[in-house]
Amino acid sequence: xxxxxxxxxxxxxxxxxxxxxxxxxxxxxxxxxxxxxxxxxxxxxxxxxxxxxxxxxxxxxxxxxxxxxxxxxxxxxxxxxxxxxxxxxxxxxxxxxxxxxxxxxxxxxxxxxxxxxxxxxxxxxxxxxxxxxxxxxxxxxxx
Length: 143
Ligand SMILES: Cc1cc2nc3c(=O)[nH]c(=O)nc-3n(C[C@H](O)[C@H](O)[C@H](O)COP(=O)(O)O)c2cc1C
Prior knowledge:
With about 140 residues, the protein is α+β, with helices and mostly antiparallel strands. It has one domain: Alpha-Beta Plaits. The chain is built from four helices and five strands, in the order E-H-E-E-H-E-E-H-H.
């Protein structure tokens, strides 16, 4: 079984391209060693990250991430159990939507994260909503 977790956080320090690149290269290297996959999204100082992997490894990583002073974790959107990985090929994919707030990627993504956090759904419905959300992210990334 694979556990997947999505959270929202807010940067507490300024992140420029270089800071983000360093964070990503380090994360991708470590994740590869620990069999973690997922993606990181960044916009207006907000991060949305999805990480998936074996439950123990994921818990350890999330503890580290939560104690990282460069951001503050605001909400765990969801945690799900999966038969297989949703992002097997990405040790840490990164994308940022264009600054323009009307942008299609940014809008869909934020609306869906709101949708998931605002509704009191059953586990099954949440899982489907999360899988849809991640599917959208995948499509946007390939667009
Ligand atoms: C938004 C954000 C996402 C992160 N994602 C990961 C990640 O996916 N994998 C990882 O190893 N570290 C990630 N980190 C970095 C960890 O918080 C931590 O700095 C890193 O694991 C090194 O910890 P250590 O030196 O105590 O081993 C992330 C940090 C931030 C701010």
